[in-house]
Each structure stands twice: as C-alpha cells, then as structure tokens.
Design brief:
Protein name: Large ribosomal subunit protein mL53
CATH class: Alpha Beta
Strand content: 15-25%
Largest sheet: 4 strands, mixed
GO molecular function, one term: structural constituent of ribosome
InterPro entries: Ribosomal_mL53, Ribosomal_mL53_fung
Structural class: alpha+beta
CATH topology: Glutaredoxin
Organism: Rhizophagus irregularis (strain DAOM 197198w)
Distance between the termini: 19 Å
Subcellular location: Mitochondrion
CATH superfamily: Glutaredoxin
Number of strands: 4
Number of helices: 3
Length: 98
C-alpha cells in the first residue's frame, strides 16, 4: 500500500469509539512489510486529547494527489477501499509504463 504513497497524516483521539478505523489503518501501514514497500514514506500521527474531535486521515500519493478522509463513521474496510481506489489506478499506470 505504501509503495504509491508519499505521506500520511493521521489525527485521532485514541479512546474515542470513532477512532477505531483510524487506529486500525495506522496499524496496517506500520507493519514491517508495508514500511519496506516505501521506506521513504512519511507517517505522522497526532493524538488528540478531545474524544469528541473527529479523526482525520490525510494522504499524499506519489503523483501529488491529496486525499482528505474523515473516517469517524466508516469501518476499516470502507477506509481501505477509499484509499486503495486511487492506488489501483497508480498501479495500473505503473504496470503499463513498464
């Protein structure tokens, strides 16, 4: 997943029920396998103290496109679908370029 991503900013209140998908997404991109795909990817995490604040995920893809996502009412599958939707297009372009 990180192969086509340059930067990820995640903001969430860890004990808020609406932050579950953000926590799971962070766990997914922090695995050794994911980090090896793009060791230069920048991952910033901001822990919010107010549990009523909405979690936010900001992603900058390799080609400069930005994704601003509010995952508060989404489950992890929906978050991954939204993030991977554009990743698939970048992968296809990469495959055709070779």
């Amino acid at each position: 997943m990180l192969k086509y991503i340059n930067k990820v900013d995640i903001k969430f209140a860890p004990f808020s029920p609406s932050a579950k998908s953000s926590r799971l997404f962070l766990a997914r991109i922090m695995t050794d396998k994911a980090r090896l795909a793009n060791p230069n990817a920048i991952i910033n995490t901001t822990v919010l103290s107010d549990p009523n604040e909405d979690p936010v995920i900001n992603i900058i893809y390799r080609d400069g496109k930005k994704l601003y996502l509010r995952p508060g009412n989404k489950n992890i599958d929906e978050v991954l679908y939204i993030v991977n939707k554009y990743l698939r297009r970048l992968k296809e372009e990469d495959d055709f370029a070779v």
